[in-house]
Design goal:
This protein is of the alpha+beta class. The protein contains four helices and seven strands, in the order E-H-H-E-E-E-H-E-H-E-E. It has a seven-stranded mixed beta sheet with strand order 1-2-3-4-5-7-6. GO terms for molecular function: acyltransferase activity.
């Protein structure tokens, strides 16, 4: 299985929202925070196709991610995979591509999400714990 990347266009919003909800639903329900209207508003506020890419496997969009450049760093706003595509190395593949730019990377992960262990395993360190999210940072070794 070799993943490929595809560009995002405005017309992809609804499909990406559905994927985001599918990827986050279990964690958000566990926290009592699942709300499709909030999911829509949050994605809409961060929907920048020029920074987003679909992750495609065997012709199917199985995830997407957003990397925003900001002041010499990268902000990973989203890295969502369909539940059936998780645990197959796709997230690591994306992180390796982003890390290869050699810039510091920041991101937030939902508290009590399995994503926290994933980011810790991939060299991110906790920089701040908030009410619902945990902020992480990665920097290339000197």
């Amino acid at each position: 299985m070799t993943p490929t990347l595809a560009p995002v266009v405005d017309a992809d919003f609804e499909a990406m929202l559905a994927l985001r909800i599918e990827a986050l639903r279990e964690s958000l329900e566990r926290l009592g925070r699942f709300n499709p209207d909030v999911a829509r508003a949050r994605l809409k506020s961060q929907f920048r196709p020029e920074w987003m890419q679909h992750l495609v496997v065997d012709g199917e969009r199985v995830g997407y991610f957003t990397v925003e450049p900001h002041d010499g760093e990268l902000r990973l706003h989203h890295l969502y995979l369909k539940p059936a595509a998780q645990g197959q190395g796709l997230g690591a593949w994306v992180l390796n591509r982003v890390k290869s730019r050699g810039l510091p990377i920041t991101l937030a992960a939902l508290r009590d999400s399995r994503a926290n262990g994933f980011y810790l395993r991939h060299g991110f360190r906790v920089v701040e714990e908030q009410a619902f999210d945990i902020e992480y940072r990665w920097e290339a070794a000197a």
